[in-house]
Write the C-alpha cells for this entry.
Amino acid sequence: MYGLGLGKGLLVTLRNALRRPSTVQYPEQRVNQHPRFRGEEFAWYEERCTGCASCAKYCPLGIIKIVTGPSGTALQDGDKYEVQTFDIDIGRCMFCGLCVEACPYDALFLGSGFERGTYQRRNLVLNVDTLRNAEKRPSTWFRPQLEEAGYNPHKGTPLPWIDAGRESWDWKGETSAGQRLFGKEKNGGDS
Ligand code: SF4
Ligand code: SF4
C-alpha cells in the first residue's frame, strides 16, 4: 500500500532520532581513547636509547633518521653513543608500530595524542629536541608491561623512563627500576 512505506520510513527516522548519538561535538567534546590507541607524537626515552638505529632500519617507509656520535662518556665500557639527530616524519607515518617492535630496549613507544594539525608538512617532522622535551604519555600498544600494570596514558601523570621498560635495572644498582609499575607504584592506572 502507498502510505505503508511512508509510515515505515518515518518509523526508521523516529527510531534513529531517539537513539543516543555515537558522534561527539569535537573539539568541545572528545571521545575516550583506549590506552592502546596509537597516537601521533611518539614517546622516546633517551635514557633507555642506545642509538642502535634498529627502529630506523625496520621502518618500512624509511622516515626515521638517526645520527649518532661518540659521547665521551662510559669510555671504560667502550664509550656510549650520543644521539645527535632523531627525526621522525609523522606526516608520512602509517603508525604500523614496527619501529616500536624493533626497539630492543623499550626506548620508543607510540604516543597517545591526536591533535598535531599544522599547515606545513615540515612541521610534522619530530626532531630530537621535540622528542626529548615531549611529555611522555606512551601508548600501551605492544607494551604488555604497561597493560598489565593498568597504565593509562590518558589519565594520571606522565611515565618516567625508569618505569617504562620490561627489564629490571638491578644490575645497574637502581633497584627494581623498570618494573615498579607492577607492584607498589602504579602510575596513572585505573586500578
Ligand atoms: S610507525 Fe611504522 S611507518 Fe611510522 S615510523 Fe614507525 S615503522 Fe615507520
Ligand atoms: S631501536 Fe630503540 S634503542 Fe635503538 S635507536 Fe631506536 S629508540 Fe634507540
The longest helix spans residues 2-18. The CA atoms of residues 168 and 179 lie 6 Å apart.
